[in-house]
């Protein structure tokens, strides 16, 4: 089975049945696809960007994954399930406004990340839910100028998403912009100084990679 990353819940005597091949930007994206389809395991080829999802079995008997594979959404901490593009996401909308680093750290303290946009459905959700407002997005080029990486898996944003989600002329590094916001005027992404205070959404990945 092709893979340079296999979910650790898989045992050596498991085999894949009814596998499906999908495109994925990262192993986190592949995990999300697996979760949305209620699959039992997956593998991800980072070179080809191919996600293989399917059912795991021993002697053709389906195996239920260990309970600790899935991370609880923690409703008591302000998170809630939201369906975006057919996938179930666990989100918490902050009532406070922080700078990028403090907002990122607040999300991390809750075992989550700043909201990421790995597909256009997640941008559409922001547009429909919040419309004309500002929100931090978990994307920045703090380490390397003009190399924007997502907070959840450290992957570089694809050229397709750049052209589909960035506002006209962005990123332009205006005002030393190294951190990305959802910009109310265009309802697209715009680079901004990391020191500004904006609202933000925390996003909890429901797969346990440990």
TrEMBL record:
Lineage top rank: taxon: Eukaryota
Keywords (A to Z) from UniProt: Disulfide bond
Annotated ranges, domain C-type lectin: 86-203
Gene3D superfamilies assigned to the protein according to its UniProt record, in alphabetical order: Mannose-Binding Protein A, subunit A (3.10.100.10)
Record-linked SUPFAM superfamilies: C-type lectin-like
Membrane-spanning ranges: none
InterPro entries: C-type_lectin-like, C-type_lectin-like/link_sf, C-type_lectin/snaclec_domain, C-type_lectin_CS, CTDL_fold
Keyword check for Heme: no
Name by which UniProt lists this protein: Macrophage mannose receptor 1-like
Gene that encodes the chain: LOC129924065
């Amino acid at each position: 089975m092709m893979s340079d990353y296999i979910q650790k819940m898989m045992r050596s005597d498991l085999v894949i049945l009814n596998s499906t091949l999908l495109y994925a930007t990262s192993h986190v994206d592949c995990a999300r696809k697996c979760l949305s389809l209620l699959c039992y395991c997956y593998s991800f080829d980072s070179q080809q960007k191919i996600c293989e999802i399917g059912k795991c079995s021993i002697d053709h008997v389906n195996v239920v994954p260990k309970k600790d594979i899935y991370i609880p959404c923690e409703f008591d901490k302000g998170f809630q399930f939201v369906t975006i593009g057919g996938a179930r996401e666990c989100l918490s909308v902050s009532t406070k406004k922080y700078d990028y680093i403090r907002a990122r750290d607040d999300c991390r303290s809750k075992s989550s990340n700043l909201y990421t946009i790995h597909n256009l459905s997640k941008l559409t959700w922001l547009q429909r839910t919040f419309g004309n407002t500002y929100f931090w997005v978990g994307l920045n080029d703090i380490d390397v100028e003009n190399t924007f990486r997502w907070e959840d898996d450290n992957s570089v944003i694809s050229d397709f998403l750049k052209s589909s989600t960035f506002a006209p002329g962005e990123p332009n590094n205006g005002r030393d912009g190294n951190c990305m916001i959802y910009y109310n005027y265009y309802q697209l992404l715009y680079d901004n100084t990391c020191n500004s205070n904006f609202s933000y959404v925390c996003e909890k990945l429901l797969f346990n990679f440990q």
